[in-house]
Amino acid sequence: MAAPDPKPSSSPDPSSSSSSSSSSSRTFLGRLPLPERTYLAEALRTETVGGVLLLIAAVVALIWANTPLSDSYRSVGAFHIGPVELGLHLSVEHWAADGLIAIFFFVAGIELKRELVAGELRDPRRAALPVIAALCGMVTPALVYALVNTIGEGSMDGWAVPTATDIAFALAVLAVIGTSLPSALRAFLLTLAVVDDLFAILIIAVFFTEDIDLAALGGAALALAAFWLLLRMNVHGWYIYVPLALIIWGLMYNSGVHATVAGVAMGLMLRCTRREGETRSPGEYIEHLVRPFSAAIAVPLFALFAAGVPVSGSALVDVFSSPETLGVVLGLVVGKTVGIFGGTWLTARFTRAELNKELAWPDVFAVSALAGIGFTVSLLIGELAFAGNSTLTGEVKASVLLGSLIAAVFSSVLLRLRNRRYRALHDSEGEPAEPPAGRHPAAPPP
């Protein structure tokens, strides 16, 4: 998404500009500037492809783990590689969960930075609605999980599992189903997901960090400071930044803080505004280069080694009988929908923020249900929450897959209904009006 030029452009009449500014300050996701719309279109196309690849990887993992080849699946995932001296002799599954997924969060960090300096989150008044909606969309699933496990006397360790949204899957579903839906709905989901990613990484950093190696953490901080200083000095060259990024990641991993934090931190440091003479900001340029690798390799490989759980009739029944797994399913399907829709409605009802005129509340409800697809990050948090308990980890992974599938099907039905309505309105408005009998349309003035 190309960041808008920070310099003010020529504007229309001041009085109309003031009125427009006042309206846009209260209207969430009004009509976006051309650079914003261009970036949104590009991001949607890329994420859609990424979502398809992610789905393919998940299906391959499920087939691989539930056939006579299942032993080879576990063997490949458990194969260790990497330097022992650096504390990086990890399994292939571990490399995917801690290494490759950091690239996904690096791209998420750039997206967040762009939204903060040039997008919807730049104006605090306009940012209030997506921030509150995303926050409610994470708190409510956690409360649903806690309630189910309090009643069922289950483990509270998995409260964070249903809090995340998988943007690649969600955008892929929206792109396939919602061909006639207003673009503001896609912007709503994209902005919501950026904020969701921020909260998800904060949860991982705060709640899933136990033993801290202060020396490694201090080294990571110094390396990040060097990364920031080189960026401020306009130093160029991938041969400088790539090795430095690997050092930052390795130190962060050995510090005990989840290594994905390093990816977000580096993404937030990139400049995402254009200077005079620039066609793209450094953040845009690097995101353009890295995003295909993230969407086509990093995230699908993570899904390949995270989604391969044994699935059987009894396993699916167990999902609804265990409080931990039932809490995850209900959190994704019910908690996400109620949290995002309720947070959006309450914010619009009791503040000056207004819903975009192009959207109706049924549209928001449908996309709130779509946010219940928590595949990638939910699987990652599930592994962290129940580390050391392989049985429960597998069951929670199955519940994430099932909950995400239910949310995808439910939201697809809602989106298809809304899409059909918008298509009908578009077709009716596109038909030329017939002149009254015996009369002809007036000729255009000379």
Question: What's this model, at a glance?
Answer:
With 446 residues, this protein is an all-alpha fold.
Give the number of DSSP strands.
2
Give Rg in angstroms: 24 Å
Query: Mind describing the biggest β-sheet?
Result: 2 strands, antiparallel
The strand order across the widest sheet is 1-2
Helix content: over 70%
Description of the molecule:
The structure is a single chain. This protein has 446 residues and is mainly α. It has a single domain, classed as Na+/H+ antiporter like fold. Helices cover 71% and strands 1% of the residues. The protein contains 16 helices and two strands. It has a two-stranded antiparallel sheet with strand order 1-2. Strand 1 and strand 2 form a beta hairpin. Helix 4 runs parallel beside helix 10 and helix 5 runs antiparallel to helix 13.
Key phrases:
71% helix; single chain; 16 helices; disordered N terminus; globular; 446 residues; 2 strands; disordered C terminus; two-stranded antiparallel sheet; mainly alpha; Na+/H+ antiporter like fold
Q: Helices and strands in order, then pairings?
A:
Elements: H1 14-26, H2 34-65, H3 70-78, E1 80-81, E2 90-91, H4 92-118, H5 124-152, H6 167-177, H7 183-207, H8 214-232, H9 238-255, H10 260-269, H11 282-306, H12 313-319, H13 323-350, H14 361-370, H15 375-385, H16 390-430
Antiparallel strand pairs: 1-2
Helix pairs in contact: 2-6, 2-11, 4-7, 4-10, 4-11, 5-7, 5-13, 6-7, 6-16, 8-9, 8-10, 9-10, 12-16, 13-14, 13-16, 14-16, 15-16
